[in-house]
């Protein structure tokens, strides 16, 4: 068999209500990718027999390997077995090893075993039963109309154990898997998603292996490169070549790989260049400081921040002159520069950064919501001062988040050039 189309279906109303996250699908996708199996679809369906049947029928029509998590418990709303039985007429039987385990559990705990507990021991005839070493309900693998169905408990610990102990070895044996899928994330800042996609359009238009997928997040973008090959080394060689082509086009905006964050990069640059940083925060109210102090070891480079939200605190904590505020206001380039310069002096740091602006929803000092000034002062490095004005869109939290991300971007560019 060539390309295997895999699909993962999670059964459980609690997932649709947002009461728990569907981490099972993420984990399973990663494990399947490691074996060279592409997951084409993720689905979540509530505890409703007709809807589960519909989801199963759709999966059967379009996928080669269907993995179902959840709905194998003892209660009436656990209806994975019933739905599959309804569309296949596959009969159920009681698995002796499982029922013995259930009886033993209730005897050991001196609890009464209710009739519905027997339901967890029901398995499909002619299925491969996957014993559950960490729970009650076993997993199952069923062949039907040329498709492989894998049924797993929804409890993450049980699902992971059965997958690791039974499912992955079975897939290796049955499908004779000879390839792997590798992914690498390239992270960029200072360029929008649409511009990034435009710059890379010639590469994206001819993509095959690896594939190129732009991804956007708050204040930055990423490119996911995914390659399929007979080995991890070969897949990474393919990714390396495509990465070089990508960076030839947009390398000026690149800052890191995979889970690396921009504030981690700033921290590492400060550390490697033996520089210190301090912040003066009005608009961001300590949010910038919160980001950077989340990193272990940051005390060696971060002197602290002054949260100066009011005019009084700007004057009395940072020493901003009343005359400057009277003439230019607190939401101005001049105030931002004075804040960045003065916090350097007050906290004896190499570099100072400041944030002042209007988070909204109302205007302030004649400035519209979203107006932000960020200033970076390189004390001791030719007295460099870089101040930029921005107009961010969104609600209060979005404006503050974007300002913080932009502040880290300005610091990153300054530090790279020092």
TrEMBL record:
Residues 7-174 form the MoaB/Mog domain. SMART domains: MoCF_biosynth. SUPFAM superfamilies: CinA-like (SSF142433), Molybdenum cofactor biosynthesis proteins (SSF53218). InterPro entries: CinA, CinA-like_C, CinA_C, CinA_KH, Competence-induced_CinA, MoaB/Mog-like_dom_sf, MoaB/Mog_dom. It comes from Aquibacillus rhizosphaerae. Belongs to the CinA family. It holds the Pfam family CinA. This is Putative competence-damage inducible protein.
